[in-house]
Give the backbone structure.
Amino acid sequence: MTIDTTPDLEPASPTQASGSVFTSKSRLRAFFEAWPPLVLIALFWVGVIAVVVVGAKWIAPYDFMALDLRARLIPPVFMGGDWTHPLGTDELGRDVLSRLIVSIQISMVIAFLSTLIAAIVGVSLGFIAAYFRGRIEQVILMLIDAQAAMPFMIIALAVLAFLGSSLFLFTILMGFYGWERIARISRGLAISANERGYATAVRDLGATPFRIYSRHILPNIASTLIVSLTLNFPEVILLESGLSFLGLGVQPPMTSLGNMVGYGRDYIQSAPWIMLAPSAAIVLTTLSISILGDWMRDKFDPTLD
């Protein structure tokens, strides 16, 4: 008599069979919890803007200053035009897409340099106030309060009206927007960091104040400062667009997003695409950077845990 010693193969339990499905779902859920879809869309748009800024010279299909009066006010593709000018042309026959690409480049460069200037001024004054304290701190706090009390748009209008508008002066002027907020934040963070053990230990080892603040305190508060800068960046874009819209910002033959909106307002009924393209770029860019700034604040700000 032959005995079958082959072990019976039990069917896989439903839990085992669906384990991989649940694992993949949990991984996907964890990914979207860490990276919400709205943040991914904002990252994608910011990446597109970065590519445009770096490669505007090679991406633009035409020279942004090239005139073609025979091709005036051609509508974009989605309004019955053709792919020769995907976003249409303006009142002088200039390609709107090419001008939009160059405008994005100039506006983003101005916003980046201005935010960098504001960061340098604000962090420097904030650290000086945190280190010296006393009268020097009071003077810096008075400057901060005075800057915060005055509408920056009025200051910018007065300066540009009296001194004229060159690209260099305009960028430097934009750099003085928001420095008081950065100075206030950096001062508070530096005072808090000075009370911690690592700053005291480095100071007892004989490190200079510059080394303590630049090599030890600044890296430890950098995440909070970066979040503040991401919130300041879209405000500079909107300010630059507003001044350029009024004709006091970037001057012809150069172009910017606000400059394009200003020129397109006269054709808002007959050729709305001239104004809509830069307006959409301003809204999407500022919204995307603001979304990333809020997300970074939730991720890196310890007070929100």
Observations:
- The two ends are 72 Å apart (CA to CA).
- Residues 55 and 105 are 9 Å apart (CA to CA).
- DSSP finds twelve helices and no strands in the chain.
- The chain has a mean pLDDT of 82.
